[in-house]
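User: Please predict the structure of the protein below. I'd like the answer in structure-token form so I can feed it into my own downstream comparison script.

Assistant: Understood. Taking the following sequence of 288 residues as input:
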Amino acid sequence: MSHVRSRLVLAALFAVTLSGCGAGNSIPDAVRLTPGPIVQNAAALDPEAGTISYPLEEYFFNWSEHQTVLNAATLALGTCARGLGIEYTYKPLIPEMGDDRDFGVWVTSYAAQFGYHAVMSEEKAAAAAGQTTPDFGVVSPEQQELLADQCVNSPEVKRFREVPSTGPWSDAMEFAYSAVAGSDEAATLRETWRGCLEAAGVQPPDNEAAFDALAVGEGEQLSETEIRVAVADTQCKSEVGMVQKLADLLAAHQSPIIVEYRTELEAVRAKQEAQLAEAQEFLAAQGF
């Protein structure tokens, strides 16, 4: 069984969602909070890491913390699996490379290597190609059902797989992004970006609301054309200052959310920190 298929077993058995936002198309007036002032560089862009960080994120797990809890959930599931006689070898999750695309691809070095495709390390690519040792052995449908019935929702696994992260602020967070994406500022920046693309010999996207110059479907082969377009795309975004300006605008829309829901957000962060401490203790007790 390949590494990919073994991870699919995990994905099929349980999904840990960090954001959990799903407001739908109708946004209540209660979440239409007036944005705060735009502060330059309020959002921190790190091109080397490929990440965009916002002030609101201090209330939620970062990737490293989230990975620790996921590893604990995986180990707890595997421990339960072995108790059922199912072959299992624990291996920590492979760290993801940063690839925040709130406003499309924007890191030129990534674009030159991956185009619009998912960014992944050599270790992750090897795993995706099935070149690593699987976590599970061959798992039959009956064993999958057994895992689902007796392990996934067991207290030992459930304490790690359910990450507290949603609350009354979730709709407001979704609306904040929608408000930024549909704002006059975004439209003006996109128009300037589109002009830059044309000057670089790249046809702007048909969808004027798009944040990427080229839409690439999952599974499509990486091509020289895709790389050329993606590189021009990221260079134009940099020239326009597009991503930093939009990220700062989003931070301004998030600031009243922090004020409005600070007590609830602090409570969620406290729960996450307790969960993280428990996960670290569990992994250490198992020798990891």
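That's the full token string. The chain has one domain: 3-15+39-285.
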